[in-house]
Input
Amino acid sequence: MAGGGLIGLAAALLLWSHGRIAGISGILGHAADRGDGRTYRWGFLAGLVAAGAIAAAVAPSAFGGAVRSVPAMAVAGVLVGAGATLGGGCTSGHGVCGLSRGSPRSLVAVATFMISGAITVALAGARS
Amino acid sequence: MKGAVLAAAAGALFALGLVIGGMTIPAKVTGFLDVGGAWDPQLAFVMVAAIAVYAPALRWIRGRRPLAAARFQWPTARAIDARLVGGAALFGIGWGLAGYCPGPALVALAGGGLPVLVFVAALVLGIALARRLAPA
Output
């Protein structure tokens, strides 16, 4: 619960400071773009990765091991990246920001990826 | 400079929220999606809490001016089409397999070892492939 509150606060800070939606797949996917979005994208990504590195050093137990083999992780990564790009967002952009705005697109996207995720776990198991 | 610091603070706060929320533990994510098995509903509360904070904040912020930008940039897409549903379906398959979505994977990049490095590299590749093969 507290973690979720911080996520909401972080997304609000990005909106208030830069007028942008905190959609991580979009921020990552457009990181190489030219123009005025560079500052907020690279700043946000740097903060995200650096804070993660510090957290991993301070509280390693908050990071779980992989539940699949490395080849399966490669397949999953491509699906997540391509899917978020085609679908216009991921768990943050659609799930937190889009649902908060009452976006019908986000509602459809979240329902769809929850269902396909649940079907995948039902077929592949929660770990392998 | 102010803009970069504010964006980095937002990124760091977002990372902290994901870590405290348990999103950097892939088994917790697959456990959340395991609705027909040993379902662990905890991550639903993380999402609800995030929305409970962001939704009212959004309404308050919307009436102001951004601190370090000229204007707000709201999403403009409206179509509910095969691209949206197909993309989200693919996303869910990858999410259910790995137990990582993009944010937690980037947060775990430094401490997650080879599986996370491979996942993030593949994530960037997937984004590039989709943009190239199916441009909007």
